[in-house]
Amino acid sequence: MYRSHTCGELRIGDVNKQVTLAGWVQTVRKFGAITFVDLRDRYGITQLLFGEELNKVLDENPLGREFVLQATGLVAERSSKNAHIPTGEIEINIQSFTVLNKSVVPPFTIQDDTDGGDDLRMKYRFLDLRRNAVKKNLELRYAVNRSARNYLHENQFMDIETPFLIKSTPEGARDFVVPSRMNPGQFYALPQSPQTFKQLLMVSGYDRYYQIVKCFRDEDLRADRQPEFTQIDCEMAFVEQEDILNMFEGLIKRVFKDVKNIDYTEKVARMSWEDAMWQYGNDKPDIRFGMKIANLKSAFTRNGKIEAVGELINGAGFGVFDNAETVLAIAVPGCSEYTRKQTDELTDWVKRPQIGMQGLVFIKCNADGTYKSSVDKFYPEDKLKAIAHAAGAVAGDLILILAGREERTRKAISELRLEMGKRLGFRKEDEFKLLWVMDFPLFEYAEEENRWVARHHPFTSPKPDHIEVMINNNPVIENAEKYLEHPYNHIKANAYDMVLNGNEIGGGSIRIHQRALQEKMFTALGMSQEEALHKFGFLLGAFEFGAPPHGGIAFGFDRLCSILGGSESIRDFIAFPKNNSGRDVMLDAPSSIDDKQLDELQIQLNQGQD
Ligand code: ASP
């Protein structure tokens, strides 16, 4: 037996017990004739005391950091106690010990405040994983995993594995492909998600499926994405949207309870996609705070009408507003006394290339009811007051206004809102606000190809009363300039996203389950009948054998963990992550392969290219 106890286990009540511990040497402190060693394992740290006799042995064979040690001794009360660690009241008077393995000097300190930079810690990830901070993240990940599994199991979901070597049907992201040795010249693809398999499982009658599963997408890695990531993937048959929303808000509430001990008893808020875009400027609003966006003049139509108050700002001779496609404002609470320096800094902030605006207009709503603005010249007090009213501002607020092209300005104001929310402390790490965003458009216009693409994926069904519009209209866009007027633009999907604190943590839809409608969908996306059959014949065929109505959702497991763990980075919650260029710097992958392997695969590289 290597050990009788772990390094996190012994307490004052264990004094006088003889114990054997095994672990890694965290620190060695020599005081004259005695030596203290902090021994660490997964469970904690225990202080070992080597008396005079053993100290001599240590002098000859010194212990180094990260040596693996087995030590036996008596538990004793410590004279100077350490209140910061659970074992801080005791130490072990060592009687005998064995060095189970030596260690070279580690490239960084294995401590909470390590001296190792990101790259070094990625290269030696197995050492970084020894650190408490990283270990806590993996423990949280496992707690989320367990909680989700328990909930799903209790609700009759079955975990069913689906294959990783599948057929390449790129739609949305690029596929990772794997050459087949046994079928030269042919390739498998790694699944972007198990979408079609889980739908087939519904056809097979497994009416509640789940899987905590790896998905693979060969995307250019934007901030904090991983080429392989994990989803909690779920599907249910004989359900309507409402059933799914209820079941899966239950799942997240259970995870909150089990992992964070949070009783999220209120019903999860719901918002239409249109409201989200209109009021928050994006489809994953952080609703921990208000500061909703006001349209002072806008090309954005809502329910078919332009809901803006353009007359307030147009025609005053202020070209920036007069000529802008859209003018959007937020009222920032309590900031009317910002100094010139502060407003200049905000102006610089919106001019940064990531935000890309030309400038920032502000109106200070003074406490005494007067207004002061950077555009006083064009707008008399009563106009400023009317704008403030439209922006929902009260005395003491600072109104920030951006003007420009619709899409860019909306994005910019949404970023500015989040930034101000952060600066003012409205985005608290320990406050969790869930939101369902619903009624997404079914299609999105792809400008480069002048065609429709599926906003969610091609298996998502339209809202029942929009099916007619889809069937009865030609998807072809005759006039690209006027794509907004095409009836397909108004078709809404039976799709929903779950948003947590401004992050999309899950998304799903009610699926199409009839062959004819699915075929129509493929046509709408510009696929020929042959192409649809070639790519998705298996699914179309299956729909003819009694496919039940079904729908589902998938949660981004890594992201969920990172939010619950209060971190911006999903990498911190993945044992062996890739870096921003998709490389595993520890393994040094991807890498070239032997000529022999290439020969077996009958693959010839295009030599001479970098
Ligand atoms: N398969 C979808 C995705 O990965 C989720 C779903 O519709 O269930 O986004």
Describe the model.
With 610 residues, this protein is α+β, with helices and mostly antiparallel strands. Among the domains are: 12-101, Beta Barrel (OB fold (Dihydrolipoamide Acetyltransferase, E2P)), CATH 2.40.50; 289-427, Gyrase A, domain 2, CATH 3.30.1360; 441-492 and 514-545, no CATH class. Helix content is 28%, strand content 24%. The chain is built from 16 helices and 24 strands. It has helices at 52-60, 118-123, 125-128, 132-154, 195-203, 241-260, 273-280, 319-322, 340-351, 381-390, 406-423, 467-472, 515-524, 529-542, 557-564, 595-601; strands spanning 18-31, 34-41, 44-50, 68-77, 90-101, 158-159, 177-179, 187-189, 208-216, 228-237, 269-272, 294-297, 301-302, 305-306, 326-332, 361-365, 371-373, 398-404, 434-438, 443-446, 451-454, 495-500, 503-510, 550-556. It has an eight-stranded mixed β-sheet with strand order 6-9-10-24-23-22-19-11, with helices on both faces. Helix 4 crosses helix 6 (241-260), helix 4 (132-154) packs across helix 15 (557-564) and helix 13 (515-524) packs antiparallel against helix 14. The chain is globular, with a radius of gyration of 30 Å. The mean pLDDT is 94.
List its salient traits.
binds aspartic acid; 24% strand; eight-stranded mixed beta sheet; 16 helices; alpha+beta; 610 residues; single chain; five-stranded mixed beta barrel; OB fold (Dihydrolipoamide Acetyltransferase, E2P)
